[in-house]
Protein backbone atom coordinates (compact mmCIF):
# COMPACT_ATOMS: atom_id res chain seq x y z
CA UNK A 1 0.00 0.00 0.00
CA UNK A 2 1.39 3.40 -0.97
CA UNK A 3 1.74 5.95 1.84
CA UNK A 4 0.16 9.37 1.54
CA UNK A 5 3.18 11.60 1.07
CA UNK A 6 1.20 14.85 0.86
CA UNK A 7 1.61 15.91 4.54
CA UNK A 8 5.38 15.40 4.30
CA UNK A 9 5.51 17.39 1.08
CA UNK A 10 3.53 20.17 2.71
CA UNK A 11 5.82 20.26 5.72
CA UNK A 12 8.98 20.36 3.59
CA UNK A 13 7.45 23.05 1.40
CA UNK A 14 6.64 25.13 4.46
CA UNK A 15 10.06 24.54 5.97
CA UNK A 16 11.86 25.57 2.80
CA UNK A 17 9.66 28.62 2.39
CA UNK A 18 10.36 29.72 5.94
CA UNK A 19 14.11 29.23 5.59
CA UNK A 20 14.00 31.47 2.53
CA UNK A 21 11.95 34.03 4.46
CA UNK A 22 14.40 34.06 7.38
CA UNK A 23 17.33 34.35 4.98
CA UNK A 24 15.72 37.39 3.39
CA UNK A 25 14.95 39.06 6.72
CA UNK A 26 18.32 38.47 8.39
CA UNK A 27 22.01 37.92 7.63
CA UNK A 28 24.95 36.59 9.63
CA UNK A 29 27.80 38.76 10.86
CA UNK A 30 31.13 37.44 12.16
CA UNK A 31 32.60 38.15 15.58
CA UNK A 32 35.47 40.56 16.35
CA UNK A 33 37.50 40.20 19.55
CA UNK A 34 38.99 43.36 21.09
CA UNK A 35 42.28 41.75 22.08
CA UNK A 36 43.95 45.11 22.80
CA UNK A 37 41.48 45.66 25.64
CA UNK A 38 42.95 42.85 27.73
CA UNK A 39 46.12 44.79 28.58
CA UNK A 40 43.92 47.60 29.91
CA UNK A 41 42.02 45.21 32.15
CA UNK A 42 38.88 45.79 30.05
CA UNK A 43 37.65 42.21 30.11
CA UNK A 44 34.62 39.98 30.53
CA UNK A 45 33.80 38.36 33.88
CA UNK A 46 36.22 35.49 33.19
CA UNK A 47 39.05 37.77 31.99
CA UNK A 48 38.51 37.10 28.28
CA UNK A 49 38.56 39.83 25.63
CA UNK A 50 35.38 41.80 24.84
CA UNK A 51 33.71 41.15 21.50
CA UNK A 52 31.30 42.59 18.98
CA UNK A 53 29.83 41.87 15.54
CA UNK A 54 30.42 44.57 12.90
CA UNK A 55 28.67 45.09 9.56
CA UNK A 56 30.31 47.89 7.56
CA UNK A 57 28.25 50.76 6.24
CA UNK A 58 27.99 51.63 2.58
CA UNK A 59 26.81 54.36 0.25
CA UNK A 60 25.35 57.39 2.01
CA UNK A 61 25.61 55.60 5.37
CA UNK A 62 29.36 55.01 5.30
CA UNK A 63 29.98 57.64 8.00
CA UNK A 64 26.98 56.78 10.18
CA UNK A 65 27.22 54.37 13.14
CA UNK A 66 24.69 52.36 15.13
CA UNK A 67 26.19 50.70 18.22
CA UNK A 68 23.72 48.24 19.72
CA UNK A 69 24.25 46.56 23.11
CA UNK A 70 23.14 42.97 23.69
CA UNK A 71 20.93 42.15 26.70
CA UNK A 72 21.09 39.35 29.25
CA UNK A 73 20.14 40.32 32.80
CA UNK A 74 22.60 40.99 35.63
CA UNK A 75 24.52 39.14 38.31
CA UNK A 76 24.26 40.56 41.82
CA UNK A 77 26.77 38.51 43.79
CA UNK A 78 29.83 36.31 43.38
CA UNK A 79 27.78 33.11 43.19
CA UNK A 80 25.55 34.40 40.37
CA UNK A 81 28.47 35.91 38.50
CA UNK A 82 30.38 32.62 38.69
CA UNK A 83 27.41 30.93 37.03
CA UNK A 84 27.99 33.18 34.01
CA UNK A 85 31.67 32.56 33.32
CA UNK A 86 30.99 29.37 31.38
CA UNK A 87 28.31 31.05 29.25
CA UNK A 88 28.24 33.77 26.62
CA UNK A 89 27.07 36.19 29.31
CA UNK A 90 30.42 36.03 31.08
CA UNK A 91 32.98 34.88 28.55
CA UNK A 92 33.72 35.70 24.92
CA UNK A 93 35.13 32.18 24.64
CA UNK A 94 31.54 30.90 24.80
CA UNK A 95 30.10 33.24 22.19
CA UNK A 96 28.95 32.07 18.77
CA UNK A 97 31.15 33.15 15.88
CA UNK A 98 28.22 34.28 13.72
CA UNK A 99 25.21 36.32 14.83
CA UNK A 100 22.06 37.09 12.84
CA UNK A 101 21.29 40.77 12.21
CA UNK A 102 17.69 41.79 11.52
CA UNK A 103 15.20 44.49 12.46
CA UNK A 104 17.06 47.68 13.36
CA UNK A 105 20.30 45.94 12.29
CA UNK A 106 18.98 44.90 8.86
CA UNK A 107 20.98 45.91 5.77
CA UNK A 108 17.94 46.07 3.48
CA UNK A 109 16.02 49.32 2.88
CA UNK A 110 12.62 47.61 2.82
CA UNK A 111 13.21 46.29 6.35
CA UNK A 112 15.17 49.20 7.83
CA UNK A 113 14.78 52.31 5.66
CA UNK A 114 16.53 54.84 7.91
CA UNK A 115 19.57 52.85 9.08
CA UNK A 116 20.07 49.98 6.58
CA UNK A 117 23.33 51.30 5.09
CA UNK A 118 24.92 52.44 8.36
CA UNK A 119 27.87 50.84 10.09
CA UNK A 120 26.07 48.49 12.48
CA UNK A 121 27.68 47.00 15.57
CA UNK A 122 26.24 44.56 18.10
CA UNK A 123 28.31 44.61 21.28
CA UNK A 124 28.28 41.31 23.19
CA UNK A 125 27.25 41.55 26.83
CA UNK A 126 29.63 39.80 29.21
CA UNK A 127 30.02 41.83 32.41
CA UNK A 128 26.66 41.34 34.16
CA UNK A 129 26.13 44.96 35.22
CA UNK A 130 25.11 46.87 32.08
CA UNK A 131 28.76 47.88 31.57
CA UNK A 132 28.98 49.95 34.76
CA UNK A 133 31.41 48.08 37.03
CA UNK A 134 35.08 48.78 37.66
CA UNK A 135 36.90 47.04 40.50
CA UNK A 136 40.67 46.78 40.17
CA UNK A 137 41.21 43.85 42.53
CA UNK A 138 40.61 40.32 41.28
CA UNK A 139 40.04 37.62 43.87
CA UNK A 140 42.28 34.68 42.85
CA UNK A 141 39.78 32.28 44.39
CA UNK A 142 37.12 33.25 41.84
CA UNK A 143 39.08 35.06 39.09
CA UNK A 144 36.02 37.27 38.54
CA UNK A 145 36.70 40.55 36.77
CA UNK A 146 34.20 43.34 37.43
CA UNK A 147 35.29 45.68 34.63
CA UNK A 148 32.19 46.51 32.59
CA UNK A 149 32.80 50.27 32.44
CA UNK A 150 36.30 49.65 31.08
CA UNK A 151 34.91 47.23 28.50
CA UNK A 152 32.46 49.82 27.22
CA UNK A 153 35.19 52.45 26.83
CA UNK A 154 37.57 49.98 25.18
CA UNK A 155 34.97 48.87 22.63
CA UNK A 156 34.11 52.46 21.71
CA UNK A 157 37.83 53.27 21.42
CA UNK A 158 38.27 50.32 19.05
CA UNK A 159 35.32 51.44 16.93
CA UNK A 160 36.65 54.99 16.78
CA UNK A 161 39.89 53.61 15.36
CA UNK A 162 37.89 51.67 12.76
CA UNK A 163 36.20 54.77 11.41
CA UNK A 164 33.71 56.02 13.99
CA UNK A 165 36.03 59.00 14.59
CA UNK A 166 34.67 60.30 11.26
CA UNK A 167 31.03 59.70 12.16
CA UNK A 168 28.46 62.21 10.98
CA UNK A 169 25.70 60.44 12.93
CA UNK A 170 26.11 58.00 15.82
CA UNK A 171 23.52 56.10 17.84
CA UNK A 172 23.92 54.08 21.03
CA UNK A 173 21.11 51.57 21.42
CA UNK A 174 20.43 48.34 23.26
CA UNK A 175 17.83 45.78 24.29
CA UNK A 176 16.87 44.80 27.86
CA UNK A 177 20.00 45.03 30.05
CA UNK A 178 21.56 46.50 26.90
CA UNK A 179 18.71 49.02 26.76
CA UNK A 180 19.57 50.01 30.33
CA UNK A 181 23.19 50.32 29.17
CA UNK A 182 22.08 52.76 26.47
CA UNK A 183 20.32 54.86 29.12
CA UNK A 184 23.13 54.76 31.68
CA UNK A 185 25.87 55.35 29.07
CA UNK A 186 24.08 57.81 26.79
CA UNK A 187 25.96 60.93 27.92
CA UNK A 188 29.21 58.98 28.25
CA UNK A 189 28.86 57.84 24.63
CA UNK A 190 28.29 61.45 23.60
CA UNK A 191 31.52 62.42 25.36
CA UNK A 192 33.57 59.64 23.73
CA UNK A 193 32.71 60.38 20.09
CA UNK A 194 33.79 63.56 18.24
CA UNK A 195 31.97 66.75 19.22
CA UNK A 196 31.01 67.29 15.56
CA UNK A 197 29.00 64.03 15.49
CA UNK A 198 25.23 64.16 15.87
CA UNK A 199 24.53 61.70 18.70
CA UNK A 200 21.29 60.20 19.97
CA UNK A 201 20.38 57.10 21.98
CA UNK A 202 17.68 54.43 21.69
CA UNK A 203 16.70 52.19 24.62
CA UNK A 204 14.58 49.13 23.86
CA UNK A 205 12.93 47.45 26.87
CA UNK A 206 15.50 49.04 29.19
CA UNK A 207 13.31 51.33 31.28
CA UNK A 208 13.13 49.09 34.36
CA UNK A 209 11.10 50.57 37.20
CA UNK A 210 11.42 50.35 40.97
CA UNK A 211 8.07 48.69 41.54
CA UNK A 212 6.74 46.57 44.38
CA UNK A 213 5.82 42.99 43.69
CA UNK A 214 2.51 41.29 44.39
CA UNK A 215 3.57 40.70 48.01
CA UNK A 216 4.25 44.40 48.53
CA UNK A 217 8.06 44.17 48.54
CA UNK A 218 10.49 45.84 46.12
CA UNK A 219 12.78 42.88 45.44
CA UNK A 220 14.20 44.59 42.36
CA UNK A 221 15.47 47.50 44.50
CA UNK A 222 17.43 45.13 46.74
CA UNK A 223 18.68 43.24 43.68
CA UNK A 224 19.94 46.36 41.88
CA UNK A 225 21.58 47.57 45.10
CA UNK A 226 23.51 44.29 45.22
CA UNK A 227 24.50 44.62 41.54
CA UNK A 228 25.93 48.10 42.16
CA UNK A 229 27.81 47.01 45.28
CA UNK A 230 29.19 43.80 43.73
CA UNK A 231 30.49 45.51 40.60
CA UNK A 232 31.59 48.81 42.13
CA UNK A 233 29.23 50.71 39.84
CA UNK A 234 28.57 53.70 42.12
CA UNK A 235 31.44 55.82 40.78
CA UNK A 236 30.13 55.45 37.24
CA UNK A 237 26.51 56.40 37.92
CA UNK A 238 25.52 60.09 37.48
CA UNK A 239 26.68 62.26 40.37
CA UNK A 240 23.54 64.32 39.92
CA UNK A 241 21.64 61.24 41.09
CA UNK A 242 24.03 59.60 43.58
CA UNK A 243 24.38 62.91 45.44
CA UNK A 244 20.66 62.74 46.24
CA UNK A 245 20.02 59.04 46.84
CA UNK A 246 21.86 55.77 47.37
CA UNK A 247 23.67 54.51 44.26
CA UNK A 248 21.49 51.41 43.84
CA UNK A 249 18.50 53.64 43.18
CA UNK A 250 20.42 55.42 40.43
CA UNK A 251 20.47 52.15 38.47
CA UNK A 252 16.76 52.81 37.82
CA UNK A 253 16.14 55.03 34.76
CA UNK A 254 13.30 56.87 36.51
CA UNK A 255 15.83 58.29 38.99
CA UNK A 256 18.74 59.10 36.68
CA UNK A 257 16.87 59.99 33.46
CA UNK A 258 16.50 63.66 34.49
CA UNK A 259 20.31 63.95 34.34
CA UNK A 260 20.56 62.78 30.69
CA UNK A 261 21.53 65.63 28.37
CA UNK A 262 21.80 63.68 25.10
CA UNK A 263 18.60 63.11 23.08
CA UNK A 264 17.15 59.68 23.83
CA UNK A 265 14.22 57.58 22.57
CA UNK A 266 12.55 54.94 24.75
CA UNK A 267 10.86 51.90 23.16
CA UNK A 268 9.00 49.87 25.77
CA UNK A 269 5.92 47.75 26.26
CA UNK A 270 3.74 49.06 29.08
CA UNK A 271 3.34 45.42 30.13
CA UNK A 272 7.00 44.55 29.65
CA UNK A 273 7.06 40.77 29.95
CA UNK A 274 10.39 40.69 31.78
CA UNK A 275 9.22 43.24 34.33
CA UNK A 276 5.88 41.51 34.87
CA UNK A 277 7.69 38.20 35.44
CA UNK A 278 10.55 39.49 37.57
CA UNK A 279 9.48 42.77 39.18
CA UNK A 280 5.70 42.48 39.58
CA UNK A 281 5.33 38.71 40.10
CA UNK A 282 8.72 37.07 40.77
CA UNK A 283 8.71 33.51 42.06
CA UNK A 284 9.77 34.61 45.55
CA UNK A 285 6.57 36.67 45.84
CA UNK A 286 4.39 33.91 44.36
CA UNK A 287 5.38 30.71 46.20
CA UNK A 288 2.23 28.84 45.13
CA UNK A 289 2.69 29.63 41.44
CA UNK A 290 -0.60 31.51 41.11
CA UNK A 291 0.94 33.75 38.47
CA UNK A 292 2.72 30.99 36.55
CA UNK A 293 0.31 30.58 33.61
CA UNK A 294 -0.44 34.29 33.46
CA UNK A 295 3.27 35.12 33.07
CA UNK A 296 3.63 32.56 30.29
CA UNK A 297 0.69 33.88 28.30
CA UNK A 298 -1.22 37.09 29.09
CA UNK A 299 -4.43 35.58 27.69
CA UNK A 300 -4.30 33.12 30.61
CA UNK A 301 -4.42 35.89 33.23
CA UNK A 302 -7.45 36.13 35.51
CA UNK A 303 -9.45 39.36 35.76
CA UNK A 304 -7.80 40.04 39.14
CA UNK A 305 -4.33 39.54 37.69
CA UNK A 306 -5.13 41.80 34.74
CA UNK A 307 -6.30 44.46 37.18
CA UNK A 308 -2.97 44.17 39.01
CA UNK A 309 -1.13 44.47 35.71
CA UNK A 310 -3.13 47.58 34.83
CA UNK A 311 -1.88 49.05 38.08
CA UNK A 312 1.68 48.16 37.08
CA UNK A 313 1.15 49.92 33.75
CA UNK A 314 0.15 53.12 35.56
CA UNK A 315 3.20 52.79 37.81
CA UNK A 316 5.40 52.41 34.72
CA UNK A 317 3.86 55.47 33.07
CA UNK A 318 4.40 57.48 36.24
CA UNK A 319 8.07 56.43 36.28
CA UNK A 320 8.36 57.50 32.64
CA UNK A 321 7.73 61.08 33.77
CA UNK A 322 11.39 61.17 34.77
CA UNK A 323 12.22 61.68 31.10
CA UNK A 324 10.57 65.08 30.99
CA UNK A 325 8.62 66.61 28.12
CA UNK A 326 11.39 67.97 25.90
CA UNK A 327 11.01 66.92 22.23
CA UNK A 328 14.63 65.73 22.48
CA UNK A 329 13.19 62.84 24.50
CA UNK A 330 10.96 60.50 22.51
CA UNK A 331 9.03 57.39 23.45
CA UNK A 332 6.94 54.62 21.92
CA UNK A 333 5.05 52.84 24.72
CA UNK A 334 2.71 50.20 23.32
CA UNK A 335 0.13 48.23 25.29
CA UNK A 336 1.69 44.85 24.56
CA UNK A 337 3.04 41.92 26.57
CA UNK A 338 6.47 42.01 24.99
CA UNK A 339 10.17 42.54 25.64
CA UNK A 340 12.68 43.85 23.09
CA UNK A 341 10.97 44.89 19.86
CA UNK A 342 13.74 46.46 17.74
CA UNK A 343 15.91 43.40 17.05
CA UNK A 344 13.23 41.22 15.43
CA UNK A 345 11.95 42.10 12.00
CA UNK A 346 8.36 41.24 12.82
CA UNK A 347 8.15 43.91 15.53
CA UNK A 348 10.53 46.51 14.06
CA UNK A 349 9.11 46.83 10.54
CA UNK A 350 6.93 44.39 8.65
CA UNK A 351 3.41 44.35 7.26
CA UNK A 352 2.09 42.94 10.55
CA UNK A 353 4.28 44.96 12.95
CA UNK A 354 2.90 46.78 16.02
CA UNK A 355 1.42 50.19 15.28
CA UNK A 356 1.03 53.21 17.55
CA UNK A 357 -0.58 56.40 16.33
CA UNK A 358 -0.36 55.04 12.78
CA UNK A 359 3.39 54.37 12.92
CA UNK A 360 5.58 51.30 13.27
CA UNK A 361 8.46 51.42 15.73
CA UNK A 362 10.88 51.87 12.81
CA UNK A 363 8.92 54.83 11.45
CA UNK A 364 8.50 56.51 14.84
CA UNK A 365 12.20 56.14 15.72
CA UNK A 366 13.36 57.26 12.27
CA UNK A 367 11.10 60.33 12.21
CA UNK A 368 12.31 61.35 15.67
CA UNK A 369 15.98 60.72 14.91
CA UNK A 370 16.01 62.76 11.70
CA UNK A 371 13.83 65.51 13.25
CA UNK A 372 11.05 64.85 10.76
CA UNK A 373 8.56 64.86 13.62
CA UNK A 374 8.63 64.37 17.41
CA UNK A 375 7.12 61.22 18.88
CA UNK A 376 5.89 60.80 22.45
CA UNK A 377 3.01 58.34 22.34
CA UNK A 378 1.45 56.01 24.91
CA UNK A 379 -0.84 53.19 23.82
CA UNK A 380 -4.27 52.41 25.23
CA UNK A 381 -4.48 49.70 27.96
CA UNK A 382 -4.44 45.98 27.15
CA UNK A 383 -6.20 44.40 25.29
CA UNK A 384 -7.25 47.25 22.99
CA UNK A 385 -4.19 47.18 20.67
CA UNK A 386 -4.80 44.45 18.10
CA UNK A 387 -1.41 44.97 16.40
CA UNK A 388 0.58 43.62 19.38
CA UNK A 389 2.86 40.61 19.13
CA UNK A 390 2.22 39.39 22.66
CA UNK A 391 4.85 36.92 23.79
CA UNK A 392 4.11 33.33 24.80
CA UNK A 393 6.83 31.64 26.85
CA UNK A 394 8.13 28.12 27.28
CA UNK A 395 6.36 26.46 30.25
CA UNK A 396 9.70 25.01 31.35
CA UNK A 397 11.34 28.40 31.54
CA UNK A 398 11.99 29.90 34.95
CA UNK A 399 13.58 33.29 34.27
CA UNK A 400 15.20 35.48 36.88
CA UNK A 401 17.15 38.74 36.80
CA UNK A 402 20.36 36.69 36.73
CA UNK A 403 19.43 34.28 33.94
CA UNK A 404 16.96 36.05 31.68
CA UNK A 405 18.10 36.30 28.09
CA UNK A 406 19.69 32.86 27.82
CA UNK A 407 16.61 30.95 26.70
CA UNK A 408 13.58 33.16 26.07
CA UNK A 409 14.82 34.77 22.85
CA UNK A 410 15.57 31.31 21.46
CA UNK A 411 12.09 30.12 22.35
CA UNK A 412 10.53 33.21 20.81
CA UNK A 413 12.24 32.41 17.52
CA UNK A 414 11.17 28.76 17.72
CA UNK A 415 7.58 29.84 18.39
CA UNK A 416 7.66 32.21 15.41
CA UNK A 417 9.33 29.50 13.29
CA UNK A 418 6.53 27.04 14.03
CA UNK A 419 3.85 29.66 13.53
CA UNK A 420 5.24 30.65 10.13
CA UNK A 421 5.53 27.01 9.03
CA UNK A 422 1.87 26.48 9.88
CA UNK A 423 0.94 29.66 8.03
CA UNK A 424 2.80 28.57 4.90
CA UNK A 425 1.29 25.07 5.05
CA UNK A 426 -2.21 26.50 5.53
CA UNK A 427 -1.82 28.79 2.56
CA UNK A 428 -0.47 25.96 0.43
CA UNK A 429 -3.44 23.77 1.30
CA UNK A 430 -5.88 26.58 0.68
CA UNK A 431 -4.41 27.29 -2.74
CA UNK A 432 -4.06 23.63 -3.79
Automatic annotation (TrEMBL):
Annotated signal sequence range: 1-26
GO terms of biological process kind: cell wall organization
The keyword Cytoplasm is annotated on this UniProt entry: no
GO molecular function, one term: pectin acetylesterase activity
Name this polypeptide is given: Pectin acetylesterase
Enzyme Commission identifier(s): 3.1.1.-
Organism: Oldenlandia corymbosa var. corymbosa
Cellular component, GO, one term: plant-type cell wall
Amino acid sequence: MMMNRRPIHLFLYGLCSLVILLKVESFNVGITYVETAVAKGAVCLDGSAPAYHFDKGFGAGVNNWLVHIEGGGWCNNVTNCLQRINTRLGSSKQMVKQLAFSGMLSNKPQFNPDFYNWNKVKVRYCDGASFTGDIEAVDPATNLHFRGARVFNAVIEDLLAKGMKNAEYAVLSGCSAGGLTAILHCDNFRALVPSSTKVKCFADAGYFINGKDVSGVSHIEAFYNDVVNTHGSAKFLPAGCTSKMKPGLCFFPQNMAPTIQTPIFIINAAYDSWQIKNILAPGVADPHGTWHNCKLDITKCSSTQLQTMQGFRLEFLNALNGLGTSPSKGFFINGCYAHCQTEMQETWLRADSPILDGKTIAKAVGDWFYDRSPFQKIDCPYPCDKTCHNRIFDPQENPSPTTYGTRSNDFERIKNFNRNILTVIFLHVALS
